[in-house]
Design a protein that fits this description.
By secondary structure, the protein is of the alpha/beta class. The protein contains 16 helices and eight strands. The chain has an eight-stranded mixed beta sheet with strand order 1-2-4-3-5-6-7-8, sandwiched between helices.
């Protein structure tokens, strides 16, 4: 475990990376500098909050902090009928929270699920909820954050009287999500991996190869120069490894490996400024996302889920055909060999890594038509309003 003083010292040295990275294995925003002091538009934020209000008589609309892993961690719980199944969304990054952009796409989900967004330790509202950053520092590890996920799933089951829930992991969140599914398959209706991390080393290699290939194809001299300068990549033992990761992510994003057809991530970072649930202090917490990077990336580069040959809960993989943040070929190969009680792989042909924003309608259809019927067969749905319900 990294001591808290060393943790902060190392993180401070890489503060600029937080504003530049959007990745399954690393930091926060994207290929551009985030505002130094982001400030939301209060009127727009209030308008969005009012438009999203859940008025249904059986609806649920809650935002609160719960003690998980010894610290306060923040959740948003939203749905139009509390009889529907719970779907826990585990965000990526690390520390790239989903709650402040969920208003872009989540409303339709709330007709069919009670959707829980969770700001993990060290991220977003869970950062601002805790007065002692050192307490957060000591808990930033794959194992501790997996246990946070386990505790949260158990908490949700008990609080909302559900025997099972759905867990959807995105990007870095697939590490926590798959670990939870492996440890407690009996707690889940199914596990959904979106931008699934499979092998940390190969993830980096394939992303790098994509960026260099595109740089050469487009004759981008600056990209070629910067990418060739970090070869061989990845090299986690290199003193400049974090800077090398920054370079790789910068060009993967630029060539559309994060969001197909886009060279930056500004549409996402700008949307966060309108988040109804977030204060300006919550938005500013994105500047500390690099702290999670420092603590987690050594373990992430060593991950290898190819050793997992069986999952004892239904499995869904959501894969962007153009994803080179978590290259989908790795997830597809693993999917073909892993055993599960039931499994489906969904290709998103026009998406890279951000399927919930790139093809939101297609994702909704799969969640409603393919995922939710598992809960329907278990009697864990509001009656009469979706496939799988009589």
């Amino acid at each position: 475990m990294i001591k808290s003083s060393e943790w902060f010292r190392r993180a401070a040295g890489h503060a600029a990376m937080t504003a530049l990275l959007a990745s399954p294995l690393v930091g926060a925003a994207a290929a551009q500098e985030a505002p130094q002091a982001p400030v939301a538009a209060p009127d727009a934020r209030a308008i969005i909050a009012d438009a999203r209000r859940i008025m249904a008589p059986r609806g649920i609309e809650e935002n609160y902090a719960v003690e998980i892993g010894g610290i306060k961690q923040w959740v948003s719980v939203r749905g139009r009928d509390s009889r529907n199944p719970i779907l826990l969304f585990i965000h990526g990054g690390p520390a790239t929270t989903e709650m402040p952009v969920s208003w872009l796409y989540q409303s339709s989900w709330e007709d069919y699920f009670t959707v829980v967004q969770w700001d993990q330790r060290g991220a977003g509202k869970s950062w601002t909820a805790n007065e002692d950053p050192a307490a957060i520092a000591e808990g930033i590890s794959i194992e501790r954050m997996t246990q946070d996920g386990v505790e949260l799933v158990d908490y949700l089951r008990k609080k909302y009287d559900k025997r099972k829930i759905f867990v959807l992991g995105h990007s870095w969140g697939t590490v926590i999500g798959l670990n939870v599914a492996l440890r407690h398959p009996d707690w889940l209706h199914a596990y959904i991996g979106m931008g699934q991390v499979i092998n940390g080393q190969e993830n980096e290699e394939l992303g790098y190869a994509f960026a260099l290939r595109e740089a050469r194809r487009t004759k981008n001299a600056q990209a070629i120069k910067e990418l060739e300068a970090i070869a061989p990549y990845p090299n986690p033992s290199a003193p400049t490894f974090f800077e090398q990761v920054l370079t790789q992510r910068k060009w993967v994003i630029y060539f559309g490996g994060l969001t197909a057809g886009r060279s930056d991530f500004s549409y996402d970072t700008n949307a966060r400024l309108l988040a109804p649930e977030y204060s300006d202090a919550d938005l500013a917490a994105a500047r500390y996302a690099g702290l999670s990077l420092v603590a987690l990336i050594p373990g992430l580069t060593q991950l290898d889920y190819r050793k997992v040959h069986r999952l004892d809960t239904p499995l869904f993989i959501v894969a962007g055909r153009r994803d080179f943040e978590t290259p989908s070929a790795l997830a597809a190969d693993w999917f073909s060999s892993v055993q599960a009680p039931y499994k489906r792989l969904f290709w998103f042909e026009h998406s890279a890594h951000m399927m919930q924003l790139e093809q939101p309608g297609k994702l909704l259809m799969h969640l409603v038509n393919d995922v939710r019927p598992i809960a329907a067969r278990a009697g864990d749905v509001a009656p009469g309003d979706a496939p799988g319900v009589d």
